[in-house]
Amino acid sequence: MPLRETEAIVLRSYRLGEADKIVSLLTRQSGRLRAVAAGARRPKSRYGGTLEPLSYVRLWLFERENRELLRMNSAELLESFFDMQKDYRVQVAAQYVAEVSERFLPEREVNERAFRLLLAVLRGLKRSGEVNRPLAYFNYWLLRLGGFLPDLASCAACGRALGNEPGYYGAGSEGLSCAACRRSPADQTVAPGLLAVIASGCQGTLDRWLAAEKAPAGVRETRRFFEELIESHLERKLVTRQLLAEEV
Amino acid sequence: MKDFAEPLARLIDALKRLPGIGQKSAQRIAFHLERAPREDAERLAAAILDAKDKIRLCSLCNNLTEQDPCEYCTDPRRDPEVICVVETPYNVLAIEKTREYHGLYHVLHGALSPLQGIGPDQLKLKNLVERLKGGKVKELIVATNPNVEGEATAIYLSTLLKPLGLKVTRIGMGVPVGSELEFADEVTMLKALEGRREI
Ligand SMILES: [Zn+2]
Ligand SMILES: [Zn+2]
Questions:
Q1: B99 and B50, same structural domain?
Q2: B48-82 residue pLDDT tens
Q3: For a disulfide at A21, which of A13, A142, B111, B152, Cβ 3.0-4.6 Å?
């Protein structure tokens, strides 16, 4: 049984049996994985708080023959994102990021850029306590890395440049529509030119964007449009999205 | 071909849904019941239904009870100025075992957990706010689990309830982060209660 060392971010954990946890992880070296941490719910567990949601850890894992789940041997905390999540808004944002990563990234497919993105977004949340820019940044890059980012300047249906017109989107949209192509009067509106501003904010590092004085107007609006694209692509509702809408 | 005859497979399947029961334990219990006298099986089935029918939530504190309000809420010897907030009825037992806590309880039936779709509206908070409005309660001890969900719940409660003019405290970290209160022994639990601080 080979022992594997990897850096990882804990996406979430599930209870298993009497006192164990199944931990869902995004690892730097091997992509998304799930592993069993024996005894992790007991007070005297060697894992302590290392396996709390979104912890950045170094892990030693055993591959088990013919088993889907790996076995955790030990874990060491590299960086904690525990305290920031005491703020419920940040907790919702952090767990949204975890849920999307878990649904969006295929299991056991190495994706170092996604790993770095997740870490940068968690650090952005932690340092700024702000939710909208880190989430907009996360959504933008996840869509772009996955090849699902549509042309933000033209209508997804007829291809016409939107120019100074607003764009529209609703449930199941894969891009913005022009006024002529919009599918329902209930569609959400995105103000003209807004996406270009946000997209340009996303071109540098998140740190740099957050260092710029204020969040630009409409970052929340954009973030929500990206969320719709992600949900359309996943073809399923995200549990955290509803709570995010209520809270942030 | 199936591993088990249909009725047995159904029983194993039902048992597997219980917390802490995996495939192997479910099989063991199913075979045990299969071999046991019919009366034993009937007694178990009746006990499950009886508990299901007679146990409800206390309308004041949401604890499991046969009479509403529950024995804690109606006990005149308990201190009505202190309420201890916990996640599950199981946690009430852990605190009772210390024998040092004499206030009342409030069971949330969960903690804020976005990944499980649990926001403030999904917690049993409404009747807590009602209970506090009378102004009788002086201290609220938040004894949710020492993990991300429990901490966020504690801070949320403190922000929500402090304006009502009472002291909101959090149990101390006699209980290590990442573990669950139902595993804490009496001594640890007592230390956690004694070491509480205002939030
Ligand atoms: Zn069009
Ligand atoms: Zn009661």
A1: no
A2: 999 888 999 999 999 999 999 999 999 999 999 99
A3: A13
Instruction: Name the nearest CA neighbour of A80 among A131, A138, A119.
Output: A119
3-state helix, strand, coil in chain B (%, to 5): 50, 15, 35
Entry field: residues in chain A: 248
Alpha carbon separation from B164 to A43, A217, A244, B61, B81 (Å, rounded): 34, 35, 27, 18, 14
What ipTM was reported for this prediction? 0.84
Q: How far is B102 from chain A (nearest CA, A)?
A: 25
Question: What is the DSSP annotation of A156-217?
Answer: TTT--B-TTS-EEE-TT-SS-B-TTT---TT-EEE-TTHHHHHHHHTTS-HHHHHHSSSPPT
B178: in domain: yes
On whether residue B1 sits in a domain, the answer given is no
The mean per-residue pLDDT over the stretch B159-167 comes to 90
A vs B: CB pairs below 8 A: 85
Query: Contacts of residue A53 in chain B, CB cutoff 8 Å?
Result: 115, 148
Both structure tokens of B197: 């601080």
**Global pTM value:** 0.85
Please give the residue range of the domain that contains residue B31.
6-54
Q: Report the half-sphere exposure of A192 (CA within 13 A, side-chain side).
A: 8
E strand residue ranges, chain B: 56-57, 64-65, 79-86, 103-107, 139-142, 167-170, 197-198
pLDDT means over runs of 10, chain A (248 residues):
86 87 94 92 83 94 83 92 93 96 94 96 95 95 93 91 91 91 89 86 92 85 93 93 87
CATH number at residue B105: 3.40.1360.10
CA distance A84 to chain B (A): 9
